[in-house]
Structure formats: structure tokens, C-alpha cells
Task: inverse folding
């Protein structure tokens, strides 16, 4: 019963967090302090309960039940310089925001080779907020997309060195979008969304030193519906119901970990993200059946990750780096989501406080390459330069039986 | 748990260092400036478009967004030292209609229709009359190219046949200068924008080719324009002079709003029968309005469009005809029967369109030539508005079109720009100056200007109804000279 209550509380906590776009597009990849400390290269080892996200098969090698619970604090700093259309280089700072997505995982070995678990996390999210009267207000003033993933997972150790895992995700989300509308009106779209997805993984300890992991997480089509409110409300504007379908892309990991000695393990991962499923964003208004569609034309993309862990008794030192390639080509970049190529540098520590209790803390610095635009599509017509960086802090508490 | 304390300290330190150590710095980009030039005085010469006339009236809250006032603000941002740009402000709701004595400004009267027109408000009054020098904005609504050098008394233009009191409002006292030219030169400007000539063809077109019955002739326009710019250049040998050409009148919503609505509402097989140019008796044509190059129905036709098909002589009564013209039978269905046709004054037919278009083209050729001779820069407003009519205009997520009201660029009278439209026009001037003079003036942020707050849905069969008589003030300004 205690465990059930804990799970309930965890879900509640998750419901009140927000998140920001940190990976390409509006993906989030920070789902555990240990993984984040190591550049997110974790799919081969998947050695704690966050395996539910990184590679469900990793649970098959975990012989005890555990709880892994924590949060990531995200502080992005984003500036826009322009618009070039107005022959200006003036800076507009995105409103200062702080996000705290939470991750919670519970696992339990029901049989010798069979682990079950459930995870709650935010795999996609976006938080953009520009000043109300900035020159891009007709494009966006605020976006707040949150997705909550609840993923029951099953892992089975087929052989002593081979494990497989599968999960099913129920995805619930909210989307808030604000911008200026024609005739000096302001529109707020307030929507909720639901969808289902699945994932699967394989973890193979090829030799005592070498581990290989593969993970696939399906795309999730979420149907969103809610209300469109205009202030002031003008008769010709489509106040009332609004619908949209958003596809959260599939993602996959291929990871290789190598244990150089008992104390040192390094891992390299290739992460694939099927962003080409995000080709447009269309809102349909029920009042008059009209719709507004923005072409996005994202491309499939990748992230390269390396990281590792060095153990000194009860202390673990971690570090890592990654390079994240933007899925958005220049013409389609807009202030809704000022995407860019970026790299991340991370470091962190783990402390085994007792035989059962451990604490992981991590820090990640993300630097975005300058995104200079000279040819945004006509519907955007908003050229200029975006500069961004972000600081992330992550803390997780682990308890194993 | 003791161990967590040093961890927290170390993390806090890292946070402080990294958080404080990173800052976004401005990339290379345009730097506002005038390339070392001094601009201490800017004067705008023109007509209603320069004055900031909007929605059939001159009023302070629109004058604040006149394109010259917007340019003056941007010049200051670029290091110009033009001070407060002085305008002949007229307090809201603005100038009166001579016929009614009430403010002529159009507003939304009713959503049903919708009905747009004057609200019958008590007019405002001039508020900047004590300025002991000419205004920086010398745009006089109704001015034609002839008026620039003309030193006839301003008061005489207030009475018939001109009946235009606005010369007196803008130019005030002959002691400040006896003509627009004299007052402009008295200010010793470094920069002059000059946009005249529109009214030399606009009045012809908006009156359906009736009053006046022809645009200013090309030879006369050529002589007047050559003299105007030549005299200005001689008086200001070192000033930057920027002239704008004349937009094709057919690109404005005044001509493109009512016709398509009528075409959409006519039953299949019915044609609009309208009077041909200059023929007040029986000539008519059966062109389908929706076909290519249709006759253009004026916005002044809006109160009559709902009468199509009814046996009515309302137009003749409204215009105080002592008797019906020969051959007209108002017991026949209005607009559908050859004996009760849509009146000539409410349509720019193919012949009239050609006349207006030919004049615009000829005038613009003259403007380009005269500008080149006098080292003046040309702003191709005609090219810009033709492009807007064809493709719309987009910037910063906004979409503008040449549609009436919903297009966002034009005010309620379908001729004069809205606040945002003025910003777009100002940006055409600024872009031309930047590229010709090597300046880098930031453009007006159009998204920061007020938008029209009364939309009309596109494609609906509903057309705006502007009450009969509401345009009389404009017609007076354009008609007589």
C-alpha cells in the first residue's frame, strides 16, 4: 500500500511541473541525475531505475527493487536580436523562467528474471515566453507545452548476459499558446491532449567489459482539444473550441559501454529522433471550421553522446558531453521554438550513503550555436539571430531494497 | 548525510560561476546611423496621405501615425536631430464635413451590415495654432501638384470652387510663406519628402470618371512637376529630396470591395447593367462583374448595392436631380434593366480604368525623370502597392492585403492608410533613403502600431454600407480645382 501511495504522490508532483525545450525541437532528455551527469550516454548500461526511460531492458540486470526519484532544474537564457526586416539588431530577452521537470521510477523484481516497474517523466515539453509587446507578438508571446508520461514496464533476463524490456506509455499533456491576433486582439489557446505509445529495448553484455544497448520509443500521436479565447472578442474571430493533432516523434538509442577497469566505465550513444513526423502544426476551430496551419517541416536528426563514471569507494565522479543536431532548417525557425545546434557539457557525483540509499547530483551546461536567419518563410518573416544557453541542475535520490 | 554539505557548497559555487560567467552578446548587425550626415530639419510636402488623413477625416490620433511623423521618430533613433515634428493637429474626432457641420470621420456604426460612417459627433478643433513658424508636416489634404508653388490666398481655396478649408489649417498665415513651397523652404530643411500628384488622378477615379471628368493632362502635369521639383532643388541645393510616385488607383480597396460582393450576390444569369463613361442616358454594358478586368464599383456605391433588382430612383433623389435623365425609367429593376442602370458615378468602367491607368503611368514616368534630373530619390510606392495587391505583404508574422479593412493597410475610407498602413508606407521611404544615402535608419515596428479593430470577414456576401453623403467631404477635396 505504501508503494501505491508513493506512486500516487509522485504522479501528482509530476502534474504540476513545467518543462522547456532543451533537446532539438521540444524533446527533453534529462530524466535522471546520473544519466544527465554523463552526457545522457546511458542506454547501454541503464543501471538504475531510470532505465524505464533510457532502456527498459536494463531493468533485467537489476536484481533488487528500487525507487529513483528526483528533479531537474532548468534555467534557460535566450535572446533574439532583430528583426532584420526592421533593419535593427535590438535585443529582446526571453522572459526569465525556471522549470523543474520531475522523474520518478519504481521497480520491483516479481521473479528471479522478471522485473516490473513504472515511470513518470516529461519526455517532451516546451516553455517559451516573450514580452507581451515585443515585435514578434504576432508569432508568439507564450507557449507552455507539458507532456506527462506514465510508463509501466516489463523486463526479462533471457540469459545471464541478455535482457529485453518493453513498456507502454500513456501520455497526457497540456498546451497553452498565446499570441497577438488580428484587430489588436489577443488569443489564448488552452488545450489538453492524450495519446499512447510504446517502447522496447535490448541490453547485451557481450563480454564482461562490453555492454551494448538498443532502445526504441515509438512516436505518439496526441489528439489535443480545448478552447480558443480572444480578448477582446470580435464577432469574426473563431472563439470557442479548437482541435489539433501533434505527433511527438519516435526516438531510439544505440549505446556501447566499456568497462576499462572495475572503477572506470565509459559509454558512447547515438540517439536518433524522428522529427520528420512534425511537418506542420494545424489548429482547427470548431466555430467556423476554419483552421490555421504553420508548416514546420522538421527533419530526422541525431544526438551524439559520450560519458562515463569513475568510482572511488562510495563516491562516483561522472562527466560527459553531447552534440545535438537541430531538426529545423533556417526558413522554419521561429520564436515559438528558437532551435539551434548545441552541445552540452556535464559533470556530477554519486554518493552511496548507505547500502540502500544513494544520492546523485548533476550539472549540465548547454550552449546553443548562434542561429542567424536571413530567409524565414513568408508566414514568419522574422529574421535575426537567436543566442541561447542553459544551466541545468539535477538531483535524484535512490533507494534500493 | 554530513557528506551532502560539501556537495551543496561545491554545486552552489559551480552554479554561481557558470551562471554569472555566461552572457549573450549582440551579434554583428545593423547599427543605426546616418553615415555622418546631419539631419536637423525634416519637412514633409504632400496631400492627405502625408497629412495623416484617415477614415475620411483629419484627427490628432491618426496624425500621430502620419508617415512623416513616424519617419521623424525613426530619424531621431538614427541620430538625426529633428526635434519634435510639428503638425497641424486637429483634436479628435477631427475635421467637420462642410455639409453637415459634424465630424466627417468614419467609425463603426453597427455590426449589422456592418454600417460604417460618420457618427454625427461634434468636430474637434485645431490645437497647434500658436507655432510661430511653418509646420514640419505641410501635407494639405486635397492638394494637387499645382498647389505646391501656387501663392493664391489660402482663404480663397476655402471657398468655391475648391471649398477646401484645410489649406488655411495647414498653411495658416501668408506671413509664414505664401505657398507650400515658400513655407517648406523657410524651414531650411536637410531632408524633404515630396508626395504630390495622387489627387491629379484620384478624384477622377473615385468619382467614377465623372467629377472631374478627366485627370490632369499629362503635358500640364509634366510642366507643373518639373517646375515644382526644379524650384525646390534650386532653393535647397544641398538638401536630400525624396519623392514618391503615384500608386495605381485600381490597387486600393475603394475600388475592389463592393463589386465582388455584388457579383457574389447576383443570381445566376443576371448581369449588372451600368452606365458607360460620359454617357448619362442609355448606354449600358452586360459585363459579368466576376470576369477578369471587371468594371470597378466604387465604395460610394455601397448604400445602393442592396437596391439592385428593386424598382428605385433613390440615387437620383439623393443627388437632387430636378428630373430623371432622358431614357431612365425607375420603375424598372435597378442595376439589372438597361433603362435603370447602375449610375456612371459609381463605377470605373474599362475605358475609365484605362484613362486613370494611363495617367498614373505617364505621371510616374515624369516623376522618375524629373527626380533623376534633380538628384532626388524616388520611392516606388506604385510598385509596392501593386505587389501588395498581387501577393499581400508579410512581416513579423503579420499578413497585410489590399482588402478593405480586413487587409489591415487601409482605413475605413478605403483610400487612406490605417495607422499600420502608414508604418508600412514610412518603411518604404526609409528603405529608399537607407539604400540611396548609405544611411541605416531602423524601420518602424509595424506590429507596435494600432491595428484596425473592426474586421470584416473575407468572402462573406455582406458588404459594408457606408451611408449616402458620407463621402461628400472627400469628393469635395478631390473634385474641384
Result:
Amino acid at each position: 500500500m505504501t508503494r501505491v501511495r508513493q506512486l500516487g504522490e509522485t504522479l501528482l508532483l509530476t502534474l504540476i511541473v513545467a518543462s522547456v525545450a532543451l533537446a532539438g525541437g521540444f524533446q527533453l532528455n534529462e530524466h535522471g541525475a546520473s544519466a544527465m551527469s554523463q552526457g545522457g550516454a546511458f542506454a547501454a548500461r541503464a543501471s538504475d531505475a531510470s532505465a524505464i526511460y533510457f532502456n527498459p531492458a536494463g531493468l533485467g540486470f537489476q536484481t533488487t527493487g528500487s525507487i529513483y526519484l528526483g528533479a531537474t532544474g532548468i534555467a534557460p537564457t535566450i535572446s533574439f536580436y532583430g528583426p532584420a526586416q526592421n533593419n535593427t539588431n535590438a535585443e529582446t530577452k526571453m522572459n526569465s523562467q525556471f522549470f523543474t521537470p520531475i522523474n520518478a521510477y519504481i521497480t520491483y523484481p516479481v521473479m528471479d528474471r522478471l522485473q516490473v516497474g513504472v515511470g513518470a517523466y516529461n519526455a517532451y515539453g516546451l516553455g517559451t515566453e516573450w514580452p507581451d509587446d515585443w515585435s514578434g507578438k504576432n508569432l508568439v508571446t507564450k507557449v507552455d507545452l507539458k507532456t506527462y508520461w506514465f510508463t509501466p514496464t516489463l523486463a526479462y533476463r533471457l540469459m545471464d548476459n541478455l535482457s529485453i524490456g518493453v513498456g507502454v506509455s500513456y501520455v497526457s499533456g497540456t498546451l497553452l499558446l498565446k499570441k497577438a491576433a488580428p484587430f489588436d486582439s489577443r488569443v489564448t489557446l488552452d488545450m489538453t491532449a492524450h495519446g499512447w505509445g510504446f517502447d522496447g529495448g535490448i541490453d547485451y553484455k557481450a563480454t564482461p567489459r562490453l555492454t551494448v544497448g538498443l532502445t526504441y520509443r515509438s512516436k505518439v500521436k496526441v489528439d489535443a482539444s480545448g478552447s480558443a479565447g480572444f480578448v477582446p472578442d470580435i464577432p469574426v474571430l473563431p472563439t470557442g473550441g479548437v482541435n489539433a493533432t501533434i505527433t511527438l516523434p519516435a526516438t531510439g538509442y544505440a549505446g556501447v559501454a566499456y568497462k576499462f577497469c572495475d572503477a572506470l566505465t565509459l559509454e558512447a550513444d547515438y540517439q536518433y529522433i524522428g522529427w520528420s513526423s512534425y511537418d506542420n502544426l494545424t489548429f482547427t476551430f470548431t466555430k467556423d471550421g476554419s483552421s490555421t496551419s504553420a508548416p514546420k517541416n522538421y527533419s530526422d536528426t541525431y544526438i551524439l553522446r559520450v560519458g562515463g563514471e569513475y568510482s572511488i569507494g562510495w563516491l562516483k565522479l561522472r562527466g560527459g558531453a553531447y552534440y545535438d543536431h537541430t531538426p529545423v532548417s533556417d526558413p522554419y525557425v521561429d520564436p515559438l521554438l528558437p532551435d539551434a545546434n548545441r552541445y552540452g557539457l556535464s559533470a556530477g557525483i554519486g554518493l552511496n550513503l548507505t547500502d540502500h540509499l544513494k544520492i546523485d547530483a548533476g550539472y549540465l551546461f548547454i550552449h546553443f550555436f548562434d542561429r542567424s536567419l536571413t530567409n524565414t518563410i513568408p508566414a514568419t518573416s522574422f529574421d535575426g539571430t537567436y543566442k541561447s544557453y542553459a544551466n541545468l541542475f539535477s538531483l535524484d535520490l535512490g533507494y534500493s531494497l | 548525510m554530513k557528506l551532502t554539505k560539501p556537495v551543496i557548497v561545491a554545486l552552489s559555487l559551480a552554479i554561481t560561476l557558470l551562471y554569472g560567467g555566461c552572457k549573450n552578446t549582440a551579434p554583428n548587425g545593423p547599427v543605426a546611423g546616418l553615415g555622418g550626415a546631419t539631419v536637423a530639419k525634416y519637412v514633409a510636402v504632400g496631400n492627405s496621405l502625408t497629412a495623416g488623413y484617415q477614415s475620411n477625416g483629419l484627427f490628432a490620433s491618426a496624425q500621430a501615425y502620419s508617415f512623416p511623423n513616424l519617419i521623424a521618430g525613426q530619424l531621431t533613433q538614427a541620430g538625426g536631430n529633428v526635434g519634435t515634428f510639428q503638425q497641424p493637429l486637429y483634436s479628435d474626432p477631427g475635421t467637420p464635413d462642410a455639409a453637415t457641420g459634424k465630424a466627417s470621420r468614419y467609425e463603426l456604426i453597427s455590426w449589422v451590415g456592418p454600417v460604417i460612417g460618420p457618427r454625427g459627433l461634434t468636430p474637434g478643433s485645431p490645437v497647434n495654432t500658436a507655432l510661430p513658424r511653418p509646420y514640419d508636416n505641410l501635407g494639405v489634404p486635397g492638394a494637387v501638384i499645382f498647389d505646391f508653388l501656387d501663392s493664391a490666398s489660402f482663404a480663397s481655396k476655402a471657398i468655391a470652387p475648391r471649398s477646401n478649408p484645410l489649406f488655411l489649417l495647414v498653411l495658416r498665415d501668408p506671413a509664414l510663406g505664401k505657398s507650400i513651397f515658400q513655407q517648406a523652404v523657410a524651414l531650411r530643411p536637410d531632408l524633404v519628402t515630396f508626395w504630390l500628384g495622387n489627387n491629379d488622378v484620384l478624384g477622377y477615379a473615385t468619382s467614377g470618371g465623372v467629377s472631374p471628368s478627366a485627370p490632369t493632362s499629362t503635358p500640364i502635369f509634366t510642366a507643373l512637376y518639373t517646375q515644382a521639383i526644379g524650384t525646390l532643388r534650386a532653393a535647397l541645393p544641398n538638401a536630400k529630396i525624396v519623392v514618391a510616385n503615384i500608386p495605381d488607383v485600381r490597387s486600393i480597396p475603394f475600388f475592389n470591395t463592393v463589386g465582388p460582393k455584388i457579383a457574389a450576390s447576383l443570381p445566376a444569369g443576371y448581369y449588372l447593367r451600368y452606365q458607360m463613361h460620359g454617357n448619362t442616358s442609355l448606354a449600358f454594358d452586360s459585363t459579368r462583374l466576376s470576369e477578369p478586368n471587371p468594371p470597378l464599383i466604387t465604395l460610394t456605391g455601397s448604400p445602393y448595392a442592396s437596391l439592385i433588382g428593386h424598382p428605385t430612383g433613390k440615387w437620383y433623389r439623393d443627388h437632387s436631380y430636378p428630373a430623371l435623365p432622358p431614357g431612365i425609367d425607375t420603375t424598372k429593376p435597378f442595376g439589372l434593366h438597361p433603362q435603370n442602370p447602375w449610375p456612371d458615378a459609381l463605377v470605373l468602367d474599362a475605358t475609365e480604368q484605362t484613362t486613370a491607368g494611363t495617367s498614373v503611368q505617364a505621371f510616374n514616368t515624369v516623376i522618375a525623370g524629373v527626380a533623376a534630373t534633380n538628384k532626388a530619390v524616388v520611392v516606388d510606392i506604385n510598385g509596392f502597392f501593386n505587389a501588395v495587391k498581387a501577393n499581400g505583404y508579410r512581416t513579423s508574422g503579420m499578413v497585410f492585403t489590399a482588402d478593405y479593412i480586413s487587409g489591415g493597410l487601409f482605413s475605413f475610407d478605403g483610400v487612406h492608410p490605417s495607422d499600420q498602413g502608414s508604418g508600412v508606407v514610412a518603411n518604404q521611404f526609409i528603405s529608399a533613403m537607407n539604400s540611396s544615402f548609405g544611411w541605416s535608419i531602423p524601420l518602424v515596428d509595424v506590429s507596435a502600431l494600432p491595428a484596425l479593430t473592426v474586421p470584416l470577414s473575407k468572402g462573406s456576401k455582406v458588404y459594408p454600407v457606408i451611408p449616402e453623403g458620407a463621402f461628400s467631404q472627400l469628393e469635395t477635396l478631390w473634385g474641384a480645382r
